[in-house]
Design a protein that fits this description.
about 550 residues, mainly alpha, about 65% helix, membrane
C-alpha cells in the first residue's frame, strides 16, 4: 500500500533525488507542535483535502497518526491503551488530535460533503426536484384518466337518454286521441326535459375535452398548456356542480314531469321503449292523467277510444313504473359519476398548481378575473328575472328577486373595478373592489341559505297552499294537462284536478332551490375574485404610494 508522505517529512519533488545528508542545524525546521503532544495549529491541516486524507488514513481517536509511518501493531496497542485511559478518565478519553471536544471533530460524511464541489450538490438538488415533479406528473395523469373515463361514461348515458327522449320529438308521431283538447294550452315544460339532458350531455363532452387536453399538457409538460387546462377546469366546475346537484335533488320533479307529459310527444321515445308489446305507443299506453279533460277516468277514456277495453290503466301503470325506475337509475348514476369527476377534477387542479406554482396562476388570475366575474353577474341577473316572473306564486318574496338584482349589479361593478384597478394599479380602486366583492359574497351566501329555507318551509304553509290555491297556481303558470282553467275562479276545486297540491308545491319549491343553487355556484366565482383581490393587496403592502 502506497503511503503518502508524512506531514513531518520534507517535501520531495518527483524529478529530484531525496537528500542523502541531514540538514544543518540552521536549515533544520523547528519540530512540529504535535511532536510534543500539543494539538495541531497549522491552518493547512484543516483544509477539506487534509481532513479527508486524515480521515481515510487514521483512526479518529489516534493522536499521533499525523506524525508519520505507524505500524498496524503500534496502532492496535495505542488503541487499547487509549481505551483503558478513557475508562479510567471518562472526561479525558474523548480528546481529539485536532483539539477540542469530539463534537468539534467533523465526521467523514461532513468532510465528504465539504469536499464535494457546489455543482455536484446543485445537481443532486435538481435531480431530487425532477423526481418529485415526475411523481406529481404521474399522479396528475392518473387523475386526468379518471376524469376521462367518467366523462365518457356520463356522455354515453346522457347521450342515450337524450336520443330516447328526442326520438318522439323529431319523429312527430300522430297524437293520441286525448291531445286535440289540450292543443290550446301553452306547454312551457315541453322542451325543459330536452334542455336538461342536453345540458348534461354537453357538460360531459366538455369534461372529455378538458381531460384530453390536460393529458396532452401533462405529457408535454408545457406551462402554457397547463395554464389553459387549469382555467378550463375552473370553468367546468360550475356546470359540473349544477348538473350533479340536479341529478340528486330533482328526481321528484322529473317524475312529475314524466307523469304529466306521458301522453304527449315529449314521451314518445319512452313509450316506445317501455310499453308492452301489443300496446301501441300512441294507443292504450298513452292514456292521459285522469282520462283527460273530456272523461272522468282512464277507464272511461279506454272504453271510448279502444272498443270497450279495460286494460289501459294497467298497461300505462306498468310502463310508467319502469320508466320511473330507469330515470332514477340514470340520474343516480349521473350524480355519482359527477361526484367522482368533481373530486378528481379538483385533485387535478391542485396538482397542476404544484407543477406551475401558485405565483404563475395568480399572475394570470389578475389578468382574467375581471372577465370571469361577468359570468356570475349574468347568472344573478337571469335568476332575478326568473324570480320576478314567479313572485305571484308564493307569499311575498319579492325582496328575494330584488336581492339577486342587487347582487348582479354589484358583481358587474366589481368586474369593472377589477379591470380598471388592475390596469392602472391604483390602490383605492382595488380596495373598493375588495370590499364590494366581500359584500357580494356575504349577500349571495345569505340568499343561498334563505332559498333553501323557503323551499323547505313551503310545504308547511297549509293555510296558503290549499287545494284551491294550488289549482289556481297551476292554471296561472299554465301547467300541462289542466282541463278546466277556462272555468271561472268561483268554481271550487276543479280547475286543475290533474295536479295535486304536493306536486304544485314541489314545482314552486324547485324554483327557490334552483335560485339557491345558482347563488351557490356564483359564490365560487366571487369568492375566487375575493381571494385574488386579497392577494393583490397583500403584494402591494410594501409600496408606500397610491399608484404602483
Amino acid at each position: 500500500m502506497v503511503r503518502p508522505p508524512s506531514l513531518s517529512e520534507p517535501n520531495v519533488e518527483d524529478n529530484e533525488a531525496p537528500l542523502s545528508h541531514p540538514l544543518s542545524p540552521a536549515q533544520a525546521s523547528p519540530p512540529p507542535p504535535s511532536a510534543a503532544g500539543s494539538p495541531l495549529t497549522n491552518d493547512s491541516m484543516f483544509t477539506p483535502s487534509a481532513l479527508l486524507a486524515k480521515a481515510l488514513l487514521c483512526d479518529d481517536e489516534d493522536d499521533n497518526c499525523s506524525q508519520g509511518n505507524v505500524s498496524a501493531e503500534e496502532r492496535m496497542e495505542r488503541g487499547k491503551n487509549k481505551g483503558r485511559r478513557s475508562k479510567q478518565h471518562p472526561k479525558l478519553g474523548g480528546q481529539s488530535s485536532l483539539g477540542g471536544s469530539p463534537s468539534a471533530q467533523p465526521s467523514l460524511q461532513t468532510i465528504l460533503r465539504q469536499v464535494q464541489p457546489p455543482s455536484t450538490r446543485t445537481g443532486q438538488f435538481h435531480r431530487q426536484q425532477e423526481v418529485k415533479m415526475q411523481r406529481i406528473r404521474g399522479v396528475l395523469l392518473a387523475s386526468l384518466s379518471i376524469n376521462l373515463v367518467c366523462g365518457f361514461m356520463s356522455a354515453t348515458m346522457t347521450g342515450y337518454v337524450t336520443i330516447v327522449l328526442a326520438w318522439g320529438f323529431f319523429a312527430r308521431p300522430s297524437p293520441p286521441p286525448s291531445t286535440p283538447s289540450l292543443l290550446g294550452a301553452k306547454d312551457h315544460e315541453t322542451s325543459t326535459i330536452y334542455l336538461s339532458w342536453i345540458a348534461l350531455f354537453a357538460v360531459a363532452l366538455f369534461l372529455i375535452y378538458i381531460a384530453c387536453f390536460g393529458i396532452h399538457s401533462a405529457r408535454k409538460v408545457s406551462i402554457n398548456h397547463l395554464l389553459r387546462y387549469f382555467w378550463g377546469a375552473a370553468l367546468g366546475i360550475t356546470p359540473l356542480v349544477l348538473v350533479t346537484t340536479f341529478a340528486f335533488d330533482f328526481y321528484d320533479i322529473s317524475r312529475s314531469f314524466i307523469r304529466h307529459h306521458w301522453d304527449g310527444k315529449a314521451m314518445e321515445g319512452l313509450r316506445l321503449v317501455f310499453c308492452s308489446q301489443g300496446a301501441e305507443a300512441g294507443g292504450k299506453c298513452a292514456a292521459p292523467v285522469l282520462g283527460g279533460p273530456n272523461f272522468s277516468s282512464i277507464q272511461d277514456w279506454c272504453e271510448h277510444y279502444h272498443a270497450g277495453a279495460d286494460d289501459c290503466e294497467a298497461i300505462k301503470h306498468a310502463a310508467l313504473s319502469q320508466a320511473d325506475k330507469w330515470i332514477y337509475f340514470m340520474l343516480l348514476s349521473a350524480g355519482l359519476l359527477g361526484v367522482l369527476n368533481l373530486v378528481s377534477l379538483l385533485v387535478s387542479m391542485h396538482l397542476c398548481v404544484r407543477l406551475i406554482t401558485p405565483s404563475v396562476i395568480m399572475t394570470y388570475a389578475n389578468d382574467n378575473i375581471s372577465y370571469l366575474l361577468l359570468l356570475p353577474a349574468g347568472c344573478c341577473l337571469g335568476i332575478s328575472l326568473f324570480l320576478f316572473s314567479h313572485t305571484g306564486f308564493s307569499p311575498d318574496h319579492t325582496w328575494f328577486a330584488w336581492s339577486f338584482l342587487c347582487a348582479a349589479a354589484l358583481t358587474l361593478l366589481n368586474s369593472v373595478l377589477t379591470l380598471v384597478g388592475g390596469r392602472l394599479k391604483k390602490r383605492r380602486l382595488l380596495q373598493a373592489c375588495l370590499v364590494s366583492n366581500a359584500v357580494v359574497v356575504l349577500l349571495l351566501t345569505g340568499l343561498c341559505a334563505t332559498g333553501y329555507i323557503i323551499a323547505g318551509e313551503l310545504s308547511d304553509q297549509g293555510s296558503f297552499y290549499t287545494s284551491r290555491r294550488a289549482q289556481d297556481i297551476a292554471c296561472k303558470i299554465q301547467l300541462r294537462g289542466c282541463c278546466c282553467c277556462h272555468y271561472s275562479e268561483s268554481v271550487p276545486d276543479n280547475r286543475c284536478p290533474e295536479w295535486g297540491t304536493d306536486e304544485v308545491i314541489s314545482m314552486i319549491a324547485a324554483d327557490f332551490r334552483i335560485a339557491s343553487l345558482a347563488a351557490l355556484l356564483t359564490i365560487l366565482y366571487d369568492f375566487g375574485g375575493l381571494i385574488t383581490g386579497f392577494l393583490v393587496m397583500k403584494n402591494l403592502d410594501n409600496y408606500h404610494c397610491e399608484y404602483i
